[in-house]
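Re: [ENG-882] Designed sequences occasionally contain unexpected residues at chain ends

Forwarding the minimal case from QA. Structure tokens:
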């Protein structure tokens, strides 16, 4: 009984409504007893039953790991939050009491719960503007996770506090006298840094304890927004401000609704002081966040800004949950989204967007709209063309350039910061791979069916149902996707689909099957790969190797790596280049040349002049006079390659140029002494 009553008491301090208090007292009932949600609904009503269910863990399901269980529980809670934001407040109160009573648990459990609190619940409290709850979470979590570090910092703070009483008192007196002189009503309070924030600054900013504690912090609380700016002018007149350290969160509030003016000053004796100036309402908002919606509930019951921002955040969570592949991926996106540092950038029309620190133009594009992100091709940052991967800075104006028919690039995942961008890119790429593998699977199956004198459109429906039953798949698309990814052999599936047709055609059509080859267009996407061992290019005789999970890998006909399976009809497929093949293909060259000043630059200029792009280049000294240059270049066809090689051969310093088609040749000259790398 103690725990539910304690949770309800915490919510009483937040001035929560009666339904939240009922849910707090009942929040463990579904999880720990045999009483169902229906029973709670009949006695206490729908709202209370939904709140209790939203906070309850999924303890009836078996999970493969604790991480998956935590992720699934959080996902369930996010869904409940979308219906009623009070779910998260009950959960935060529940977690706060758990943290206050951690000492009764084993060290392992203490550390696990503390880590989860610091990773998820403290940032959520921060996101909802509940500063007092966040500080308590962080200090209790820090003490449980790193008890010795916590004790050492606490002792050091206690010692410093005694030594600096006189300076704090002098500065506070001068600030109060300044407000009196200017007839500005307000109160001044000294602000102490909490232990976890001291530890984080020492760890992340690599500052010593004395550097952090040398800064004195004060909060000036006044009656109106107008007075805030008057007080700012007065304190800037009293002490010199530190350039670049002023932030106006009143004009541009933080995402959690936090509003205040921040400035840093050089006070008496050159001691730096941090000042926060805000109204009484902003002070309540900073400490209670979304809970202040219930604390200051007006008669018309309109939602506050904090409430609206919280709802916006939760709807963003739901969008990420919809696009995430599983609960673990979802929680990864949420952790990214809870990253506390933020920047403020402008759209070309002057609207303000808030993004995590380190965000790029791609994050900005997805923040504007998912379709803008998917079609993004370039950007202008403060009117200059810039790479999509360039980190944005506060105050910049960002313009995204889109083009119809474009699609997200997998490389974007290496630099995007927001959970929304990451989840949307992954979702798009998964769908793209699915559609490409279905299309390839259809082509492969139709080719295999041709050997039995049939086509997919002609196969009887009962045969399709029988094959789906045998393979435990739900739809034809799933079967085609499996074939396209190389997980199932098209020839075997074709054999089953035509099981009731006359098999006498089989041998007669075998010849036709071998002559009819699959045309490679170069635009098949992520389910078609070109082998790195032999680098096939249009014009080369080729063969398709079905690789499980990857789809089809194209090799040259004489590649050593598929010699063992070359005649296996289930593993290898006759393919040929489509006359309209498109794209650029990687090929490797070995150039032997005489050592001369600037020869590498001349070689590179010659290759790019032949409209070929250099991917990699490395040189090896063969002897004092000659060097060997290994190149990886992109060409369109064998004719294009011949043109490049002809131009390279025409250079006076070049003694020979040849195409490398086997791994063995490369290994013979790999990593010799004195190898140089040129990008």
């Amino acid at each position: 009984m103690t725990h539910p009553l304690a949770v309800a008491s915490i919510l009483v301090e937040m001035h929560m409504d009666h339904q939240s208090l009922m849910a707090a007292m009942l929040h463990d009932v579904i999880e720990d007893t045999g009483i169902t949600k229906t029973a709670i609904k009949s006695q206490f009503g729908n709202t209370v039953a939904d709140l209790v269910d939203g906070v309850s863990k999924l303890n009836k399901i078996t999970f493969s790991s604790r991480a998956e269980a935590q992720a699934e529980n959080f996902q369930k809670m996010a869904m409940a939050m979308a219906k009623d934001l009070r779910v998260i407040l009950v959960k935060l109160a529940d977690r706060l009491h758990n943290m206050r009573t951690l000492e009764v648990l084993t060290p392992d459990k203490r550390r696990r719960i503390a880590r989860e609190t610091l990773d998820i619940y403290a940032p959520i409290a921060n996101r909802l503007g509940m500063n007092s709850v966040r500080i308590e979470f962080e200090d209790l979590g820090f003490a449980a996770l790193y008890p010795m570090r916590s004790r050492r910092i606490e002792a050091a703070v206690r010692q410093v506090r005694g030594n600096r009483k006189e300076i704090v008192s002098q500065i506070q007196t001068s600030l109060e006298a300044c407000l009196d002189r200017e007839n500005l009503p307000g109160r001044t309070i000294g602000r102490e840094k909490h232990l976890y924030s001291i530890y984080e600054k020492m760890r992340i900013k690599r500052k010593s304890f004395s550097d952090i504690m040398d800064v004195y912090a004060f909060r000036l609380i006044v009656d109106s927004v107008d007075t805030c700016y008057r007080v700012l002018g007065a304190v800037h007149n009293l002490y010199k401000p530190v350039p670049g350290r002023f932030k106006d969160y009143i004009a541009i509030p933080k995402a959690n609704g936090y509003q205040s003016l921040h400035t840093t000053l050089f006070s008496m004796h050159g001691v730096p002081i941090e000042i926060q100036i805000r109204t009484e309402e902003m002070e309540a908002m900073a400490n209670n966040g979304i809970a202040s919606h219930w604390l200051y509930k007006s008669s018309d019951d309109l939602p506050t800004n904090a409430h609206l921002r919280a709802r916006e955040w939760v709807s963003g969570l739901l969008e990420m949950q919809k696009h995430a592949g599983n609960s673990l991926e979802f929680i990864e996106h949420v952790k990214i989204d809870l990253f506390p540092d933020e920047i403020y950038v402008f759209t070309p029309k002057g609207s303000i967007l808030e993004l995590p620190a380190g965000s790029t133009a791609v994050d900005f594009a997805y923040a504007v709209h998912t379709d803008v992100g998917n079609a993004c091709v370039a950007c202008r940052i403060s009117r200059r063309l810039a790479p999509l991967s360039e980190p944005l800075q506060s105050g910049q104006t960002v313009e995204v350039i889109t083009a119809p028919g474009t699609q997200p690039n997998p490389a974007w995942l290496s630099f995007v910061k927001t959970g929304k961008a990451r989840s949307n890119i992954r979702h798009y790429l998964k769908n793209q791979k699915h559609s490409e593998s279905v299309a390839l699977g259809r082509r492969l199956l139709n080719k295999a069916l041709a050997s039995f004198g049939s086509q997919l459109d002609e196969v009887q429906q009962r045969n399709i149902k029988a094959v789906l039953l045998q393979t435990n798949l739900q739809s034809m698309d799933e079967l085609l996707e499996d074939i396209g990814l190389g997980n199932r052999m098209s020839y075997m599936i074709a054999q089953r689909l035509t099981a009731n047709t006359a098999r006498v055609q089989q041998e007669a059509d075998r010849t036709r099957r071998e002559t009819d080859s699959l045309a490679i267009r170069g635009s098949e996407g992520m389910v078609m790969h070109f082998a790195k061992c032999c680098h096939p290019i249009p014009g080369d005789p080729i063969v398709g190797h079905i690789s499980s999970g990857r789809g089809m890998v194209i090799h040259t006909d004489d590649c050593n790596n598929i010699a063992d399976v070359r005649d296996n009809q289930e593993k290898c497929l006759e393919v040929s280049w489509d006359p309209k093949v498109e794209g650029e293909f990687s090929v490797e060259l070995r150039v032997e040349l005489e050592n001369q000043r600037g020869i590498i630059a001349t070689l590179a200029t010659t290759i790019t002049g032949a409209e070929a792009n250099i991917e990699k280049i490395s040189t090896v000294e063969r002897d004092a006079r000659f060097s060997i240059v290994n190149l990886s270049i992109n060409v369109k066809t064998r004719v294009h390659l011949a043109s490049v090689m002809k131009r390279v051969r025409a250079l006076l310093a070049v003694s020979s140029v040849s195409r490398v088609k086997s791994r063995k040749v490369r290994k013979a000259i790999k990593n010799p002494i004195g190898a140089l790398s040129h990008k």
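QA comment: On inspection the terminal residues look reasonable. Residues 58-63, 295-300, 502-515, 664-679 have pLDDT under 50 and may be disordered. Proposing we downgrade this to a documentation issue.
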